[in-house]
From TrEMBL:
SUPFAM superfamilies reported in the protein's UniProt record: MoaD/ThiS
Top-level taxon: Bacteria
Coiled-coil region: none
InterPro entries referenced in this protein's UniProt entry, alphabetically: Beta-grasp_dom_sf (IPR012675), Mopterin_synth/thiamin_S_b (IPR016155), ThiS/MoaD-like (IPR003749)
Gene3D superfamilies: 3.10.20.30
Native organism: Qipengyuania pelagi
Name of the featured protein: MoaD/ThiS family protein
Signal sequence, renumbered to the chain: none
Length: 80
């Protein structure tokens, strides 16, 4: 029983890998505990979004990923 965490863009560089598998279920506190402290700090920024099972969460602290689901960490988007 696992949840796959996918790191996108610069968050992948910060994590040092493309993905990580952790035990299910996974909530917000579990996500922060599963990643490196520096990355956990970045995830708390309002500019970083979290998607679970293909849906971007309006409130990322409400994360509740179940077995087999994917959690994608979406970095801030720059534009011009």
């Amino acid at each position: 029983m696992a949840v796959r965490i996918v790191f996108l863009g610069p968050l992948r560089d910060a994590a040092g890998s493309e993905s990580l598998e952790v035990s299910a279920p996974l909530d917000w506190e579990g996500l922060l505990a599963a990643v490196a402290p520096e990355l956990a700090g970045q995830l708390q920024s309002s500019r970083v979004h979290v998607a679970c099972a293909g849906e971007v969460l309006a409130d990322k602290t409400a994360l509740m990923a179940r077995d087999g689901e994917e959690v994608a960490l979406l970095p801030p988007v720059s534009g011009g």
